[in-house]
Design goal:
323 residues, alpha+beta, Membrane-bound Lytic Murein Transglycosylase D, Chain A, Glucose Permease (Domain IIA), three-stranded antiparallel β-sheet, 8 helices, 21 strands, 29% strand, elongated
């Protein structure tokens, strides 16, 4: 082989090697390599290198590193205040406000307020509902109110309220509905809409409240009173505080003649010290239906009704649920 032939073969080899390297670089771009960065002078790291992992390279060629990602702000579409928009949904069989709220990622208050639902237990299949794009409730502007006072009432931002409702000034008109983003319904109002408020079983004053009190039968001792005592003369009608099914009737050494009624969503009510029981186990009673008469049976200091409310087996203060 002549020297010229050897030179030509060497040139061909070099060309092929260069082509192979270019192909490798095309398949494995520079963003997958670690780049070495010389340490700043005087940092005390004797002659070593600080390594910085390259995460990606944007269209502009700016390198984004693990350090620079910490300063990246959220997209404007997430943080920007949105005007109120609603989709339509047709209620299906088996739907209730609780499951709809979960499915659409909203509070129950929001769906109730936007659709002006007065009693959630009457929600029927085939009813169209408006599903908003954000949580909040409607507020009907009252005489004398302004945007500032409404925002203060709900601890909201007046400018946000303007944007959401597409208002072009601070002026609000009495009788119009404003959507207050992030606001919730009053707790007692929500309980009433969900059917969780009780009527008074007896019209009378409370003689003993729920909670710790001095034991009237053991001087010097305290006891947890798990209900309220309502004054009433013997023979006064006792009425079911909420519709439900009678789960037990009988006599107890403490409660005397008693009735227990089971209601929806885990509620039960107990009526004690009655003179006469006027219902039976298994009977369905409507709210306000007479179930007995006030009396003085069992461990009692006088004629009255003892009234206890249980929620999932645990006593709660009846006063917060009475309307």
């Amino acid at each position: 082989m002549t020297q010229l032939q050897q030179t030509n073969q060497l040139n061909i080899y070099i060309f092929r090697l260069a082509a192979a390297l270019c192909l490798i670089l095309l398949i494995n771009p520079g963003q997958y390599f670690n780049h070495k960065k010389p340490p700043a002078e005087g940092n005390g790291i004797g002659g070593g290198y600080l390594y910085e992992e390259l995460i990606s390279e944007g269209e502009s060629g700016v390198l984004l590193t693990t350090a620079s990602l910490d300063s990246v702000s959220e997209p404007e579409t997430i943080t920007k205040t949105r005007i109120l928009l609603c989709d339509s949904y047709m209620v299906q069989s088996g739907d209730n406000i609780s499951t709809l709220a979960i499915n659409f990622g909203l509070n129950q208050d929001t769906i109730i307020s936007v659709n002006k639902i007065s009693y959630t237990r009457l929600l029927q299949a085939g009813k169209p509902l408006k599903i908003p794009n954000q949580d909040g409730v409607f507020h009907t502007v009252k005489n004398g109110e302004n945007l500032s006072s409404i925002a203060q009432k709900y601890n909201a931002n007046a400018e946000v309220i303007k944007t959401v409702n597409e208002l072009f000034s601070d002026k609000v008109v009495t009788g119009t509905d404003l959507f207050i983003p992030g606001a919730r319904l009053d707790w007692s109002k929500l309980q009433e809409i969900n059917g969780d408020l009780f009527i008074w079983p007896v019209n009378g004053a409370i003689s003993s409240f729920y909670g710790w009190r001095r034991d009237p039968f053991n001087r010097g001792h305290r006891q947890l009173h798990n209900g309220i005592d309502i004054k009433g003369s013997t023979g006064t009608p006792v009425r079911a505080a909420m519709a439900g099914r009678v789960s037990a009737v009988g006599y107890d050494n403490v409660f005397g003649n008693y009735v227990i009624i089971s209601h929806h969503t885990g509620y039960r009510t107990l009526y004690g010290h009655m003179h006469i029981i006027r219902t039976r186990t298994g009977a369905y009673v409507a709210q306000g239906e007479r179930i007995g008469d006030v009396g003085n049976t069992g461990q009692s200091t006088g004629s009255h009704l003892h009234f206890t409310v249980y929620k999932n087996g645990v006593t709660v203060n009846p006063r917060s649920l009475l309307r």
